[in-house]
């Protein structure tokens, strides 16, 4: 996710995720933090209201953020999918 990946819709226009469309600043931050140390904490702070009294995100954005949060569970050091062909 180092760079935003867009697909082309049926009208020939780029398709944006709900996060990109409604919260471009957050999408940019997610893209810049992807694979870096602060990514987990940032996604977590977006999914869970740690300050209290926040309005929350629209359902489509919440679903995308929660999906990104769930993907954190799949990032393990010993995960065979993250190893190169040479180290197996």
Structure characteristics:
88 residues; mainly alpha; two-stranded antiparallel ribbon; 4 helices; 42% helix
SSE series: EEHHHH
Number of domains: 1
Tell me roughly what share of residues is in helical segments. Answer: 40-55%
Class computed from helices, strands and strand pairing: mainly alpha
Q: Count of DSSP helices?
A: 4
The major beta sheet can be summarized as: 2 strands, antiparallel
Mean pLDDT: 79
Cα distance spanning the termini: 25 Å
Strand order of the largest sheet: 1-2
Runs with pLDDT <50, length 5+?
Answer: none
Number of strands: 2
Global shape = globular
In short:
With 88 residues, the chain is mainly α. It has one domain (7-75). It has helices spanning 18-22, 24-33, 39-47, 59-71; strands spanning 7-8, 14-15.
SSE inventory with pairings:
Elements: E1 7-8, E2 14-15, H1 18-22, H2 24-33, H3 39-47, H4 59-71
Antiparallel strand pairs: 1-2
Helix pairs in contact: 3-4
Task: Describe what you observe in this structure.
By secondary structure, the chain is mostly helical. It has one domain (7-75). The chain is 42% helix and 5% strand. It contains 4 helices and 2 strands. The protein has helices at 18-22, 24-33, 39-47, 59-71; strands spanning 7-8, 14-15. A two-stranded antiparallel sheet has the order 1-2. A hairpin with a 5-residue loop joins strand 1 and strand 2 (14-15). Helix 3 packs antiparallel against helix 4. The longest helix has 13 residues, at 59-71. It is globular. The two termini are 25 Å apart. The mean pLDDT is 79.
């Amino acid at each position: 996710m180092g760079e935003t990946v867009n697909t082309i819709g049926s009208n020939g226009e780029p398709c944006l995720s709900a996060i990109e469309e409604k919260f471009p600043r957050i999408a940019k931050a997610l893209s810049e933090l992807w694979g870096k140390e602060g990514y987990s904490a940032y996604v977590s702070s977006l999914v869970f209201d740690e300050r209290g009294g926040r309005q929350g995100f629209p359902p489509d954005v919440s679903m995308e953020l929660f999906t990104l949060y769930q993907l954190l569970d799949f990032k393990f050091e010993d995960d065979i999918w993250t190893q190169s062909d040479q180290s197996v």
